[in-house]
Amino acid sequence: MWGRRIASTRCAGLRCCPARVSSRPLRPVSSLSRPSPSSLPSKPHLAPPSRSPLYLRTLSACSAKPAISFTPKRHCSSEFRVMALQDREILPSEVKPLHYGISLFDLQLGGSWSYKGIVKISSKVNGPTKQVVLNAKEIEVQHAEILGTDGAELTKASDITYDKKSERVTLKFLDDLPQSDIVVSISFTGTMNNSMAGFYRSKYKSAVEASPDTPKEGDFHYMLSTQFESCDARRAFPCFDEPNLKATFDFEIEVPKGQTAISNMPVKSERSGSKPELKVVSFDTTPVMSTYLLAWAVGDFDYVEAFTERKYQGKSIPVRVYTTKGLKEQARFALECAHKTVDYFSEVFEIEYPLPKADLLAVHEFAMGAMENWGLVTYRTTAVLFDEGKSDTRYKNRIAYVVAHELAHQWFGNLVTMDWWDELWLNEGFATWVGWLAVDHFYPEWNIWSQFVAEGVQQAFQLDSLRASHPIQVPVKNALEVDQIFDHISYLKGSSVIRMLSTHLGRETFLKGVAQYLKAHAYGNATTNDLWSALSEASKQDVNSFMDPWIRKIGFPVVTVAEETGKVNVRQNRFLSTGDPKPEEDQTTWWIPLGIKSGTELVAQEPRALVSRADTIEGIGEDSFYKINKDLSGFYRTNYPASRLEKLGQSLDSLSTEDKIGLIGDAAALAVSGEGSTAALLSLLEGFKDEKNYLVWSQISSSVGNLRSVFSQNETVAQGLKNFARALSSPAADKIGWEFKADEDYLTVQLRKLLISMSGLAGNESIVAEAKRRFDLWATGKDKGAVHTNLRSTIFSIAVSEGTRSEFDAVKDEYLKTDSVDGKEICLSALGRTKYAELVNEYLDFVFSDKVAIQDVHNGAVSLAANSKVRHLLWEYLKNNWKFVEARLSANNVVFERFVRMGLSKFADHGIEGDIASFFQNKDTGVYDRALVIVADSIRTNANYKERDEKQALEWLQAHGYA
Fold first, then answer.
1. Is residue 66's pLDDT more than 80?
2. Of 686, 691, 695, 630, which Cα lies nearest the Cα of 659?
3. Which of 45, 252, 559, 637 is 20 to 30 Å apart from 159, CA to CA?
4. Per-residue confidence at 924, pLDDT binned at 50, 70, 90?
5. What CATH number should be reported for the domain holding residue 199?
């Protein structure tokens, strides 16, 4: 799954806060007081359509590649797993699922939105028991019985009880169940909720006239789809909802004849339903897989289709992208990416794509970014649709990556699944890295690995530098806790560490080991140690010995460099953003690949690693040029002496793009921790005025933006940093200009947007004037083309920031009427740039109204948190309207956690830190308690930095003419 931290559910029956419209003049916040605070083809990569894995067989390969056993590998032999089982709250082991037959019918497409279902679970009874315990949430079981494999009734449930806290249903029987193969048959009812979890409904406004039997309420039509990861299959049907309880699945659903039903596998048959206007759609049997990967969808769908160039069993595989009608042409780019990526990964992993089809589906309301359901990947619309001529080209980059990430999961995660949720990183860290690998393969001109360093690695550093971080492999006792570890540690630190390892082993060797791992554990479950074993065998190195601390220990190191003539001394310690690791927090000795390049030709030295707390490197030193951590391939910060940092800043032509990004990122982080200084950072940044690379500028902008955020409450320092940002970016902005050329490359397009935004928001008068001119032409309708598609976010943000109500209302109106797939995200972010208190509160009323999809509410939090003039008003609003906010967000835990974390982490005031802690002290914070720890740690870090370096920053700015 990608982007677990991107959005939530639509709550029915909540009030809509009216906008507070006033004719009174607006007062900038700076003038206000602030608070202190068909059937399966027979090929070696598919389970045959038998109803029980007991009959799974090993099939011979159609090529020279080794055959893959279909027998589910449910149990890993490692001692670690045996011990781990004792620390997990899991279902009783006496009954294990083998195969599910699921039938859903009597769907109420409106009103109660209820449905009925029957699930028949072929199971193995392994020990004496008088009960069957399954997972169920918001499901009512009407009837349960035990059948023999011949379908004969053996016994009926004498009692059915629920445990809402553990989300379980217990079926009790008077006698012991036979210790053999049985079928657990359950009749139940459920609800197609609007919480973006389980089996749920999404509302949308149809782009064309919808089919007459498309569900509709009011002005909105509805589509139906599922979201089961992590623990929400249980919201759709009673099941054994744990990742290592794999089974095969038969699924059928009764739907209106005009609607399209899709699922993991191809349609097997259609028959008449219980009413003339209904049909029952049945699907082929799935391979053995985890419950969280099951999926289905129903809607007024259309699709675009392509076929793989590579042949599978002599045939190309159909690849489709489904959308609601009227949108399919916007799926062309995703389709282009998808069919090529299926072929690419089939080659890279040395295993053919394991299913007979690959479907992608655009879902109108979606809490995350995408979900890797086997054979039916679901996406939020902005992660799969691109409207040529209307969409920002940045979204092409996003779509290519998200498509690749989810398709990587078809092997790494679906074919081979983590044994338990504590090894989530096995799925997500690898899919993140290999997703970037695929995009780099298809779009080398995008300089993807530099983007990864600027975005992925730096974000991972930021979270992992907090005391509130956690190991990549984090203990998970109860699966219901897992939502809060779908974060930058599992995804971005995990992928950064994999990049480090693949660089060390060599990419070819690394991928060879991965292929061996997948073949050995296909259709089963595996652990981190299983991956290390395969990589060790492929590389002839003891991978576990040097990777174990990276996975199981919290944090990462900083390598401190001390120079002497002809040599340098290096020392490793844990890096914390507060700069104060306690002895007990600094006990890990990491294996650190030093990646040294030196000399006038910047020749890479022989691979060398720091494997102790300290070491000495001969042959380089204060009298020679050198750079540690070439291309930022290692996951660590480097702390150079001030003189060396200055020399590196004067030798930018000798550094790679990744080196430059790492240099700036390290200097900025070390300034925050106190191991470096703000003066050194500002001096380094001054040397980048002539930089031409977008991705380097992205890091520059991020670092300067953090400075402006932290020191925003000191007016003199804030103005000095604004002047600094303007002086730094304006020459490059003026040089690149406003006009786009027809043959302009992607990175140049993004650079123009970034430079105009950075310079304009720093007060460059000529850029502000031009942005206002173009905005006025667009807003008045005189020239709708005055605002280029790729400059909407920039021009809208400058106009709202520098304007008053008229600009705010114009962007808000655009939000309400835009048909651009990315337009709502762009407008919502721009609206948060206002400097007026009255408009901020009106904006928040709007964000929490039913005009804004819950999945997008976090954009409001991000935008206001980044607006240092008014971010305190966001906190005041939350306190004053908490019951309303809580009701609006509580239907989806992922959304709730994301809003709290993103909205409150940017403060730099100990008083507000205390106020937040006090406010939440007596509240039930179970779904976002980790977010609150991150918030407190982040605010504390910012506040300490501000107090320590504020005076120094002012002195530097005054000395250099900025303040």
1. no
2. 630
3. 252
4. very high
5. 2.60.40.1730
